[in-house]
Amino acid sequence: MSEEELSQLSLILLNEAHTIKPFDCEDIDLNEFLFEKAKLYKQEFLATTFILENDKQTVAYYSIFNDSLKVEEEGFASKSAFKRFLKDLVSHPKRHLKSFPALKIGRLGIDKNFKGKGLGKLIVNNIINDTLELNEKQACKLITVDAYNQSLHFYERLNFEYLTENDKNEETRQMYLDLTSLTIAQL
Fold this sequence. Notes:
This protein is of the alpha+beta class and 187 residues long. Helix 4 links the parallel strand 4 and strand 5. Helix content is 33%, strand content 27%. It is globular and about 50 Å long.
C-alpha cells in the first residue's frame, strides 16, 4: 500500500455506536463475526475488535482477547519433546510451568479489494507492538492464533510456530509467537 493510501486509513476501536462500513473478505465466518457478533463480544468482554477503515469502507479488522496457553505432555510426540518445548519457552523449566499468559488473535480479516497489500503484516506487527507495550504492566508471553489452513504460510512468515503436529489435518492449527525473543532482540 502506498503512503498516501495508508494515511487515509483510520484505526478505530469498535464500540456500540460505530457504524460498520461495507466489508467482504470472502470468508462467511469472518464477515459474519464483524457484522453480527463483534459488538456483542465487546459488550460481554469476550473480545475487543479494531477496525481499519477509509472514508468509504472497512478495509480490515481484527479481534483480540486474553488467552492462556495450556501445554500438556499429551500434545507432544514424546516426553523429551515436551521438555524441550518447555525449555525453549522458559529459562526455569524446573518450575513446571504448563500454562503461559497469552493474547489471542481471534479474528483477522482483510477486505478482498485490499488483500496482498501488506495490511495483514502491518496489523500483526501492530498487535505485537501493543502487546510488548502492555507487558510493562501485565505479563504476556505469547501471541496465539488458531490459524485457518489458508493462513498458515502468512503466520509462518511472521515467525509463528506450530504448537503441535496433532492438528496437522484439522481446519485450523494452533500457532504461537514467543514475545521473549522479540523483547530480547530489542534490548
